[in-house]
Write a structure and sequence with these properties.
By secondary structure, this protein is α/β, with parallel strands linked by helices. The protein is built from six helices and 20 strands. The structure holds 2-acetamido-2-deoxy-beta-D-glucopyranose (3 copies). The site of one 2-acetamido-2-deoxy-beta-D-glucopyranose has 3 residues, from loops. InterPro entries: Cys-rich_flank_reg_C, Leu-rich_rpt, Leu-rich_rpt_typical-subtyp, LRR_dom_sf, LRR_TM_domain-containing.
């Protein structure tokens, strides 16, 4: 009886606490879900119970529990058993106890990132035999054995990075498991933090002899540590469904935040105050598909700014202060499909040619908004028309043949990208 009372009290105090911080927040969240398309698909969006205030909703016929940022320390027994997705990011869970999730045998994904988990008991995931996605990044795990994963035969997506991994012999079974060819998508970014000589090495690449071999000779002198500062997760909102999204809109950011989690798929930096894009701003975010930089006042993009964004499909540069795009800027974007360029003061002089020719040669990239604003004589012209007139004024140069419908929507057969070298015409 006493225990029950204590638990009830705990909920009340938690809920009270949360209401203070969350009142402004939950609306934003709801909006965000709408923005991401989930809201539309939801058939029910309702408050679960007043205490604790978790959201339960159905999207595409699957039931979600969104209990992120609730200061939770454990899983509540009254949550419905037919949940498919459990979002518990940014709570205060410290330990995953045996059978903690055994009630939720339908779960497909479990998001436990950004908690304080330092211990996972061997049977913590018992019963989760449908689970495919498990997010444990950004916790306090030091060692873990393969055993905890044996209850999840269909696990295909596991994140373990940003944990202080102690690469010693206790990790042997986990490291061996991660290195099996069929597990090539599990825990790709997790790195050792200790011992010093293995710091920064990926678990995937550690050789078992390195951690279980006998130490001979003097210990190497530890090098001064260069710690990778962690992403400040209070800065932006992070969403996991439907894709890993970092929402940093309207945060008065003057530069691109550092250490963006490498598995971010959508990054929204719109409506900030980023005026320059420096080299390699996005280098480690290999998974990024959508990057929104609109409404920032960007004046200049370094040619190496987009290095590493090989999977980027959509780039929104609209409503900035760009007059042209320097040679090289777009060369890293092998899989770009959509480029938004509206509302920039594009200046129709020789410097705009690179952008124009890049788009011409990558004609499966859809773009919009490439219109001259300067100089006065070309104001309002499509850049295409300006470039054409440029050649008409130089009759010695052969006028290139442009497809008539070289426009916002290109639908010609795709050719391998980067197969054509951009011709710089003088
Ligand atoms: C980028 O952000 C702006 C403003 O927040 C929004 O209107 C636009 O649709 C976004 N672009 C993409 C590609 O999501
Ligand atoms: C364009 O960006 C400015 C700030 O640079 C902002 O005040 C304005 O609302 C934006 N316009 C649109 C249409 O988003
Ligand atoms: C461009 O494509 C969109 C959607 O694919 C379509 O709605 C629009 O009519 C197209 N515009 C032109 C000019 O073809």
């Amino acid at each position: 009886m006493q225990v029950v009372t204590i638990i009830i009290l705990l909920f009340f105090s938690q809920a009270a606490d949360l209401r203070k911080t969350r009142n402004g927040n939950s609306r934003k969240k709801a909006n965000n879900r709408k923005a991401s398309g989930l809201g539309k698909a939801s058939s029910t969006v309702k408050r679960f119970t007043p205490n604790p205030p978790c959201d339960i909703y159905t999207s595409l016929f699957e039931k979600y529990l969104d209990c992120q940022e609730r200061k939770l320390t454990f899983v509540l027994p009254e949550w419905p058993e037919d949940l498919k997705h459990m979002l518990l990011a940014q709570n205060s869970i410290r330990k995953l106890k045996n059978n903690m999730f055994s009630k939720f045998q339908k779960l497909k994904s479990l998001d436990l990132q950004q908690n304080e988990i330092s211990k996972i008991e061997d049977q913590a995931f018992w019963g989760l035999n449908k689970l495919t996605t498990l997010l444990l990044q950004h916790n306090k795990l030091k060692v873990l054995s393969e055993e905890v994963f044996i209850y999840m035969p269909f696990l295909t997506y596991l994140r373990l990075y940003d944990n202080p991994w102690q690469c010693n012999c206790q990790m042997e079974s986990l490291i061996t498991m991660l290195q099996l060819p069929r597990n090539r998508n599990l825990a790709n970014y997790a790195k050792c933090v200790y011992p010093a000589e293995l710091k920064g090495q990926k678990l995937k690449l550690i050789q078992v002899e390195q951690i279980c071999g006998e130490k001979v000779g003097p210990q190497p002198v530890p090098k001064p540590e260069i710690t990778r500062p962690e992403f400040d997760s209070s800065l932006c909102h992070m969403y996991v469904f439907p894709v890993q999204t970092l929402d940093c809109r309207r945060k008065d950011l003057k530069k691109v935040p550092s250490n963006i989690p490498p598995d971010t798929v959508k990054l929204d930096l719109s409506n900030n105050k980023i005026t320059l894009l420096r080299p390699k701003e996005f280098e480690e975010i290999d998974d990024l598909k959508v990057l929104n930089l609109s409404s920032n006042g960007i004046i200049h993009i370094d040619p190496a700014a987009f290095v590493g964004l090989i999977n980027l499909e959509e780039l929104d540069l609209s409503n900035n202060s760009l007059q042209n795009v320097e040679y090289g800027v777009l060369e890293h974007l092998y899989f770009l499909k959509i480029l938004r360029l509206r509302e920039n003061p594009w200046s129709c002089d020789y410097n705009i040619h690179y952008l124009f020719y890049w788009l011409k040669h990558h004609y499966n990239v859809h773009y919009n908004g490439l219109e001259c604003r300067k100089p006065e004589e070309y104001k309002g012209w499509l850049v295409r028309k300006y470039v054409r007139s440029y050649f008409e004024e130089c009759p010695k140069d052969k006028l290139p043949i442009y497809p008539d419908k070289f426009d916002d929507n290109e639908t010609e057969e795709p050719t391998p990208k980067h197969s054509v070298i951009v011709t710089v015409i003088d």
